[in-house]
Design brief:
Layout: H1 2-20, H2 28-34, H3 48-65, H4 71-95, H5 99-121, H6 130-159, H7 169-189, H8 194-212, H9 219-242
Helix pairs in contact: 1-3, 1-4, 3-6, 4-5, 5-6, 6-7, 6-8, 7-9, 8-9
Length: about 250
């Protein structure tokens, strides 16, 4: 499984480069522009993938060389490998505009990466370097996917004309509410991991930037909902870090 983790970690940036060169069809930005939604983030936000890919490769190298990895690392490896593989797969699938399959793939990637990150974050006996080289990169990846999955969902709804594209606000607010619940739940399970929070805030800020300048009806509302989501996430994170820790009972005391 060590080999699978590092191979799929390396595969992601390779597939991303091929995707951006048009090898699989129109790039992600071109397709996204065809199906505008109230959840789309400003284009600059997607540069976070560079950091995600680099840090995931670092994780792959670390877990390959870690001689005394914790049991949590062993349990996280299959989830991480699957998450990396699905992340890589999503890019050509989306370029081919197989939107239904792309939606399944990105939600699968989120489930796998979040599971791996939570497993590592809740490890009571982490290995040396595990926080910086395992938990953090996977938490960052999970944080971005937690928003990207909903962005992709909105685009699929528009592409398949599931709802009226001329009045997006109602169902977009429902998706943003669901995204808020997911962010808070995963953040709680991760104990307010700063890498997860940073990725989510980066995405929410970009949604605000895009929608505050958007022309679609309801764009201003969506922009301020993104701000409210960021405030809630920050408040929860502060609470998770500042709340008193329950002390373990010691026999005889």
């Amino acid at each position: 499984m060590r080999l699978a983790v590092i191979l799929f970690a390396l595969l992601m940036p390779v597939i991303a480069w091929l995707s951006n060169t048009g090898t699989f069809g129109p790039d992600n930005g071109t397709i996204s522009d065809r199906y505008p939604t109230l959840l789309v983030a400003a284009g600059y936000a997607f540069s976070i993938w560079g950091l995600i890919f680099a840090w995931d490769v670092a994780f792959g190298v670390w877990q390959w060389r870690a001689d005394a990895a914790s049991r949590a690392v062993e349990r996280a490896r299959p989830w991480a490998a699957a998450g990396f593989a699905l992340t890589a797969l999503w890019m050509p699938v989306f370029s081919q505009q197989w939107f239904g399959l792309a939606l399944l793939v990105i939600w699968g990637a989120l489930a796998c990466i979040a599971s791996a990150a939570i497993t590592l974050a809740r490890d009571p006996s982490p290995a040396k370097g595990q926080g910086a080289w395992a938990t953090a990169p996977l938490a960052l990846h999970a944080g971005w996917l937690s928003l990207a999955a909903f962005l992709n969902t909105a685009q699929v709804l528009v592409a398949y004309e599931v709802f009226d594209g001329a009045s997006m606000l109602g169902w977009s607010l429902a998706l943003l509410a669901a995204a808020t619940v997911l962010l808070l739940l995963v953040n709680h399970r991760l104990g307010g991991h700063l890498a997860y929070v940073a990725a989510a805030l980066w995405g929410l800020a970009a949604v605000y930037v895009k929608q505050s300048r958007g022309e679609l009806p309801g764009a201003d509302t969506a922009a301020w909902v993104a701000v409210a989501m960021a405030v809630l996430l920050l408040a929860q994170t502060a609470w998770l870090h500042l709340r008193p820790r329950r002390r373990l009972a010691t026999p005889g005391l």
